[in-house]
Design brief:
Number of helices: 7
Catalytic activity: 4 Fe(II)-[cytochrome c] + O2 + 8 H(+)(in) = 4 Fe(III)-[cytochrome c] + 2 H2O + 4 H(+)(out)
Domain Cytochrome oxidase subunit II copper A binding: 136-266
InterPro entries: CcO_II, CcO_II-like_C, Copper_CuA, Cupredoxin, Cyt_c_oxidase_su2_TM_sf
Main location: membrane
Shape: elongated
CATH architecture of the largest domain: Sandwich
Strand order of the largest sheet: 3-2-1-5-8
Subcellular location: Membrane
Number of domains: 2
């Protein structure tokens, strides 16, 4: 009788614990989507969503394995603990039970193989280039990271000076990369000095920018299918690259295709106010399309250091 009552109390305590865990998302105001992200941040590209799905299902698999493992452990502790009426004899030993050992070997192997397969699939999708993306991207952008700033250029778009449309960061200006939504984008990266890393947190991945990638056998080109939503995003260098690494920031403006096309057209024209081609800030100001078109950086500020010589090397 006492043993039955003890088991009943344990069962009730377990049910209360389970109910408490299930109530946490509701009581904390979290949505189902937020709970299923398991802390993974919100991204703005299909690649980011693919990585989020991998993270979610990996976490679910880990929880299932954990619950089964915890259940077996607690079951053994509760129902095979030493009792007052035990005669001191050992329980039946199963350390050399071949079927059990095979199961304990096969199940983890299957779990690891399945996770490996899904991981490789997502990695190949995120790391694709023009050849594996099914054709040329709609937009091409060249990225140069140098100590300690960025240059962004559009090799398929020629400005009034006969050179590709480009934006160069300086000690006075934070560079702004303007991209379209709903179009595929191919990035090609290089560095004239040390290793940098191109990182836009909302893309949920970063890519190292290597010096002389063709000499180092580095794949420096990759494609994203599209950016899902308009927005202004901060970008950073995510690789320690020297004295001013922490200030090596840039910004991204994601505009709807019509606005992006107008932006590129302006970059190809001469600004009557200056007699020179529109720069990124002037073109964004001319668009006058709200916060997404802020002509100056809104999340970071320039820092006082002379980078002119290195900028010349990057563009030379």
């Amino acid at each position: 009788m006492a043993r039955t009552e003890g088991r009943s109390r344990i069962a009730r305590a377990a049910m209360v614990g389970i109910a408490g865990v299930l109530a946490v998302p509701v009581l904390s105001g979290c949505s189902v989507e937020e709970v299923l992200r398991f802390g993974w941040p919100v991204g703005v590209t299909p690649e980011a969503e693919a990585m989020r799905n991998l993270w979610t299902w990996s976490s679910v698999a880990a929880l299932v394995v954990g619950v089964i493992t915890w259940g077996v452990m607690f079951w053994a502790m509760i129902f095979h603990r030493k009792r007052k009426d035990d005669d001191g004899s050992l329980p039946r030993q199963t350390q050399y039970n071949l079927p059990v050992e095979l199961v304990f070997t096969a199940i983890p192997t299957v779990i690891v193989a399945v996770l490996f397969g899904f991981t490789v699939n997502v990695q190949n999708y995120v790391d694709k280039d023009e050849a594996t993306a099914g054709g040329p991207a709609d937009v091409r952008v060249d990225i140069v990271g140098f100590q300690w700033n960025w240059e962004f250029s559009y090799p398929d778009e020629t400005g009034a000076d006969g050179q590709p449309v480009s934006t160069l960061g300086t000690s006075d200006v934070i560079p702004i990369m303007v991209l379209p939504t709903d179009r595929s984008i191919e990035f090609t990266q290089r560095s004239p000095d040390v290793i940098h890393s191109f990182w836009v947190p909302e893309f949920l991945f970063k890519r190292d920018v290597f010096p002389f990638p063709e000499r180092n056998d580095q794949d420096n080109t990759y494609v994203i299918d599209n950016i899902d939503t308009e927005g202004a995003f901060v970008g950073r260098c995510a690789e320690l690259c020297g004295t001013y690494h922490s200030q090596m920031n840039f910004e991204v403006r994601a505009l709807e295709p019509a606005l992006y096309d107008r932006y590129i057209q302006l970059r190809k024209e001469t600004n009557p106010a200056t007699g020179q081609s529109y720069n990124a800030g002037e073109a964004l100001q001319e668009l006058n399309c709200g916060e997404w078109c802020a002509p100056e950086a809104i999340t970071t500020t320039p820092f006082p250091t002379d980078r002119g010589q290195l900028a010349a090397q990057a563009t030379g």
